[in-house]
């Protein structure tokens, strides 16, 4: 199997990239250097991760004229944050990411969520009671502004993140530049089979974030199920003499899903790329599908009336109220 997927734009996007969400300051630079040194050619970033300047420091050391890696060999993604959905804010937000990363263009720029927050400097604008200040800017208007980034050569392709099937259709139906990618949470406990087949029918590539279940997510509660410790998956991995993480990544890339596992540990970063030297049988692919529980781990929750509830569920564009 090729190590790339070809996007609707014709670009080749490596099937495994390094995720940088939750990579702490002081760690992410070394993680990016380790990834580039062991053969990664795809780095996934976002303004909201607040570490793009450090990613940029690593890129400056390894990528560019006279360096180990040519710029055109590396696929770099960033994302537009929710407070920058006003059409007049989109280009400045993109230029800020480019400046932090030390780049003249991005290979892919995603709308991080379909939900707009109140514009301004504060990434999580809150009222006195702690609730988020939303904006009613429609993601279609934001998309139209993102299309200009392609026209102006700031980005090669644009795409979506955390969009459901209906919202993806909404964009496809009005787009001049079609979304090349929809990046969503996807792992064996949330196999996304319906969304995946819907996106395939539209020539939209799916990228899996938290492909290993994001065990270090800040709001995880003790006793929650862990994909990496699933006994069924561990048994399959053992048969292939691979780690559960390698098995899970292989399962997704065999479905044509791009994976961006996050790690700051050089040995793990390397292991996560060692998924092209084996193939899963059709039976094992089906077996892994059966552990699906439609279980979302990456939805920020808040305490209300003594219960944990989804934080943004009342936003008019909250994506997870339907498929």
From TrEMBL:
<dbReference type="Pfam" id="PF00248">
    <property type="entry name" value="Aldo_ket_red"/>
</dbReference>
<protein>
    <recommendedName>
        <fullName>alcohol dehydrogenase (NADP(+))</fullName>
        <ecNumber>1.1.1.2</ecNumber>
    </recommendedName>
</protein>
<comment type="function">
    <text>Catalyzes the NADPH-dependent reduction of a wide variety of carbonyl-containing compounds to their corresponding alcohols. Displays enzymatic activity towards endogenous metabolites such as aromatic and aliphatic aldehydes, ketones, monosaccharides and bile acids. Acts as an aldehyde-detoxification enzyme. Also acts as an inhibitor of protein S-nitrosylation by mediating degradation of S-nitroso-coenzyme A (S-nitroso-CoA), a cofactor required to S-nitrosylate proteins. Also acts as a S-nitroso-glutathione reductase by catalyzing the NADPH-dependent reduction of S-nitrosoglutathione.</text>
</comment>
<dbReference type="InterPro" id="IPR036812">
    <property type="entry name" value="NAD(P)_OxRdtase_dom_sf"/>
</dbReference>
<dbReference type="InterPro" id="IPR044481">
    <property type="entry name" value="AKR1A"/>
</dbReference>
<dbReference type="InterPro" id="IPR020471">
    <property type="entry name" value="AKR"/>
</dbReference>
<dbReference type="InterPro" id="IPR023210">
    <property type="entry name" value="NADP_OxRdtase_dom"/>
</dbReference>
<dbReference type="GO" id="GO:0016324">
    <property type="term" value="C:apical plasma membrane"/>
</dbReference>
<feature type="binding site">
    <location>
        <position position="112"/>
    </location>
    <ligand>
        <name>substrate</name>
    </ligand>
</feature>
<keyword id="KW-0521">NADP</keyword>
<dbReference type="GO" id="GO:0002040">
    <property type="term" value="P:sprouting angiogenesis"/>
</dbReference>
<keyword id="KW-1003">Cell membrane</keyword>
<feature type="active site" description="Proton donor">
    <location>
        <position position="49"/>
    </location>
</feature>
<keyword id="KW-0560">Oxidoreductase</keyword>
<dbReference type="GO" id="GO:0046185">
    <property type="term" value="P:aldehyde catabolic process"/>
</dbReference>
<keyword id="KW-0472">Membrane</keyword>
<dbReference type="GO" id="GO:0005829">
    <property type="term" value="C:cytosol"/>
</dbReference>
<comment type="similarity">
    <text>Belongs to the aldo/keto reductase family.</text>
</comment>
<feature type="site" description="Lowers pKa of active site Tyr">
    <location>
        <position position="79"/>
    </location>
</feature>
<keyword id="KW-0963">Cytoplasm</keyword>
<dbReference type="GO" id="GO:0008106">
    <property type="term" value="F:alcohol dehydrogenase (NADP+) activity"/>
</dbReference>
<dbReference type="InterPro" id="IPR018170">
    <property type="entry name" value="Aldo/ket_reductase_CS"/>
</dbReference>
<dbReference type="GO" id="GO:0042593">
    <property type="term" value="P:glucose homeostasis"/>
</dbReference>
<feature type="domain" description="NADP-dependent oxidoreductase">
    <location>
        <begin position="17"/>
        <end position="292"/>
    </location>
</feature>
């Amino acid at each position: 199997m090729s190590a790339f997927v070809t996007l609707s734009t014709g670009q080749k996007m490596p099937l495994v990239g390094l995720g940088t969400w939750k990579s702490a300051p002081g760690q992410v630079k070394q993680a990016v250097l380790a990834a580039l040194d062991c053969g990664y050619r795809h780095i996934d970033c976002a303004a909201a991760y607040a570490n793009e300047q450090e990613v940029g420091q690593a890129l400056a050391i390894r990528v560019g004229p006279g360096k180990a890696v040519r710029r055109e060999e590396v696929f770099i993604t960033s994302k537009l944050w929710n407070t920058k959905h006003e059409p007049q804010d989109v280009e400045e937000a993109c230029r800020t990411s480019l400046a932090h990363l030390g780049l003249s263009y991005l290979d892919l720029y995603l709308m991080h969520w379909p939900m707009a927050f109140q514009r301004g400097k504060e990434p999580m604008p809150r009222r006195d009671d702690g609730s988020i200040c939303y904006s009613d800017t429609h993601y279609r208007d934001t998309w139209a502004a993102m299309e200009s980034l392609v026209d102006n050569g700031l980005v090669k392709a644009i795409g979506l993140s955390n969009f459901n099937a209906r919202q993806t259709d909404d964009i496809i139906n009005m787009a001049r530049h079609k979304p090349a990618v929809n990046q969503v949470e996807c792992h064996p406990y949330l196999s996304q089979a319906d969304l995946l087949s819907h996106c395939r029918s539209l020539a939209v590539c799916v990228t899996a974030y938290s492909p290993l279940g994001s065990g270090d997510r800040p709001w995880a509660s003790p006793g929650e199920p862990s994909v990496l410790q699933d006994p069924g998956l561990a048994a399959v991995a053992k048969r292939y003499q691979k780690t559960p993480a390698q098995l899970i990544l292989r399962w997704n890339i065999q479905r044509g899903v791009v994976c961006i596992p996050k790690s700051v540990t050089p040995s793990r970063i390397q292991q996560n790329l060692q998924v092209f030297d084996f193939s899963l049988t059709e039976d094992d692919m089906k077996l892994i599908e059966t552990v699906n529980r439609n279980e979302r781990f990456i939805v920020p929750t808040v305490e209300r009336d003594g219960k944990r509830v989804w934080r943004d569920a009342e936003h008019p564009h909250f994506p997870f109220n339907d498929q």
